[in-house]
What does this fold into?
Amino acid sequence: MPRATNNVAAKQRRKKIFKQAKGFFGKGKNVYTNATNRLEKGYTYAYRDRKAKKRSFRGLWIQRINAGSREHGMSYSVFMGKIHANNIELNRKVLADLAMNNPVTFKAICDSLK
It folds into this structure.
């Protein structure tokens, strides 16, 4: 009796890996073991950087709020302290957007805090 192999499933499995590794440099795109290693490392970076992205955006928002509040004579910490003390329910993302794109509205917020 001839030896039975499951070539169809094996080829589909490899094809799926190569499709995901498309665009990698060198052997990372066309050698199965290298492609699986590169994909695994890429997935770990993607997982890690989805978390880091949130941190970096928060830092950017803080810088923009700081720049906007300093134009109106307040530091970031004083500004945020007064925001919380006056129960203004705007998060950092919205405040940063106002400081950058709507300076008139941001000025009105700063004037209401003084």
